[in-house]
Amino acid sequence: MQRYLLIESFSEITLPDRGMLGPNALFDPAMIDTPELADYTEDAGREWAVHIKRENQITKVFYPFNPLDAVGWKGDLTVWRINVKDIRPVMSHRYHLPPSVHTTFMAQNFVICSFLPRPFEEEEGAMRVPFYHRNIDYDEVLFYSDGHFFSRDGIGQGMVTWHPQGIHHGPHPKAIPLSRTKDRTDEVAVMVDTYRPLKATPAAELVENLDYWASWK
C-alpha cells in the first residue's frame, strides 16, 4: 500500500536561506529534477480543460490545443522535485538541533521540514531526543513515511500527528531510554508547521486515534 502526503499551497514554494552553511547545504541543487518538455503536436484536434482554483471554487477554461505546448521557459519558477535520498541532514555530535534546521521548503505561511536517517548525538550527556516544548506560533503536523520515529512510541508508517498551537508535546517516555541503545535514527518523516491554525475535516475525524494523548503516560 502506498501512502502520500499532499500539501496544497496558495503561495510560491521556495528554499530556505542556508546562511553560513552555504548554498549546497541539505542538498546539492544539481540533484533537483525539472520537467522535460514533451512534443504535444500529436495531441492536436482535441479539447483541453484547465482547472483554476480560487477561494475554494473551481473555474474551467477550455482550449482547442494542449495548453502545455511550451518550447521552453525563462527564469526559475517551475515544477521540480528532490529525492529524500539526496537530502543530507544537518547534524551536531554535541547538541540536539531544533527542527527548524531541517527546513526543506518555505511558503508564505508555513514551512516543510524533512527528518531523515542520521547519527545520534554522541557526546556524553547530550540530549538525543527533542526537548519538551509548545509552539505558540505554529500548528505542527507530522507525516511518518518510513522507519521508526525515534521520539515517538506506537507510531507507524503512514500515520499523521497534529499538535495545535500552545499544546505541550515532546518525546514519549520510552523514547529517552531507547535513544541510548542506538547509534543512529532510521526515520523518514515530513513536518509541516503552519502559521495559521488548522482545522480538522470530517474525513480526518473518521480515522482519528482518540487515545493518542495517552501515549505520553
Structural summary, described in words:
The mean pLDDT is 87. The protein is built from 2 helices and 7 strands, in the order E-E-E-E-E-E-H-E-H. It is mainly beta. A hairpin with a 2-residue loop joins strand 1 (48-54) and strand 2 (57-63). The chain has 2 domains: 19-34 and 83-216, Sandwich (Jelly Rolls); 39-71, no CATH class. It has a 5-stranded antiparallel β-sheet, with no helix packed on it. The radius of gyration is 21 Å and the shape is globular.
For the CA atoms, what is the radius of gyration? Answer: 21 Å
The CATH H-level homologous superfamily of the largest domain: Jelly Rolls
Name the CATH class of the largest domain.
Answer: Mainly Beta
Mean pLDDT over the full residue set = 87
Q: How many DSSP E strands?
A: 7
Given the structure, what is the number of helices? Answer: 2
List the domain count as a whole number: 2
The best one-word shape is globular
Summed up:
With 217 residues, the protein is mainly beta. It has helices at residues 175-179, 202-206, and strands at 48-54, 57-63, 103-106, 110-115, 139-146, 160-163, 188-194.
Architecture blueprint of SSEs:
Layout: E1 48-54, E2 57-63, E3 103-106, E4 110-115, E5 139-146, E6 160-163, H1 175-179, E7 188-194, H2 202-206
Antiparallel strand pairs: 1-2, 3-4, 4-7, 5-6, 5-7
